[in-house]
Design brief:
Blueprint: E1 4-5, H1 17-22, E2 30-34, E3 37-41, H2 46-66, E4 71-74, E5 93-96, E6 110-117, H3 122-132, E7 140-145, E8 151-156, E9 162-167, E10 173-176, E11 181-184, H4 185-188, H5 199-202
Length: about 200
């Protein structure tokens, strides 16, 4: 997710999903629908964009080799449930093994969703992460920080509970349990100039 911006005065205060999907939204913002309210998002900062691109490339290469029926999508629209008419969230990346549905504006049966935290949007991004736990098909959520080399894995266990683990070492592999794959944290952040958290942050 990117930094939320002030919504221009001409934007409706509230709308339903059907109206949102055909809405001619003003630029240069990207938009998502949160509890019936349209929210505008600014373009990603360079570090955010690089992390997003490198993650997509690493995951897609693995899927092509081992799960050719699956794909990673950038900024896919996500429905929290089939009958939810008030939300259309936009994660940074989503992975699905279900073919696209003709005419649908949303990713089908996402298994893995990924968010990247940027300065100024942490609260909104964490609210999205919490919302994704309601999606029945989602097995895993990954959260990366664009200001420090840090990742967090949320994994749904068979009993429905979610377990969280944080990763704060350049040499550590961040697992994607749903796809039996892992990526080195240093590879994800390569070229960003982002460093590990300070000792105080890690403790």
């Amino acid at each position: 997710m990117t930094i939320l911006q002030k919504i221009p005065d001409c934007i409706p205060d509230e709308m339903g999903l059907a109206e949102f999907l055909i809405w001619d939204a003003p630029g240069p913002w990207h938009w998502q629908l949160v509890e019936g309210v349209p929210e505008a998002m600014a373009p990603a900062c360079p570090a955010h964009a690089r992390i997003q691109t490198q993650l997509a490339m690493l995951i897609q290469a693995h899927l092509r080799a081992s799960r050719p029926g699956c794909a990673v999508l950038s900024n896919p629209g996500v429905l929290l449930s089939e009958d939810d008419q008030r939300n259309f969230r936009i994660p940074d990346l989503g992975v699905t093994c279900t073919p696209d549905k003709p005419g649908a504006g949303n990713i089908q049966n996402p298994i893995l969703l990924i968010e990247i935290l940027s300065p100024g949007n942490a609260k909104e991004t964490w609210l999205n992460v919490q919302a994704y736990t309601k999606i029945g098909s989602v097995e895993e959520i990954l959260i990366f920080d664009s200001t420090k080399m840090e990742a967090e894995n949320w994994r749904r266990f068979q009993d429905g509970t979610w377990h969280r683990k944080k990763f704060q070492s350049a040499a550590v592999d961040v697992p994607l349990f749903a796809f039996e794959f892992s990526v080195r944290l240093s590879e994800i952040y390569e070229g960003t100039g982002v460093s590990l958290p300070s000792h105080d942050e890690q403790t």
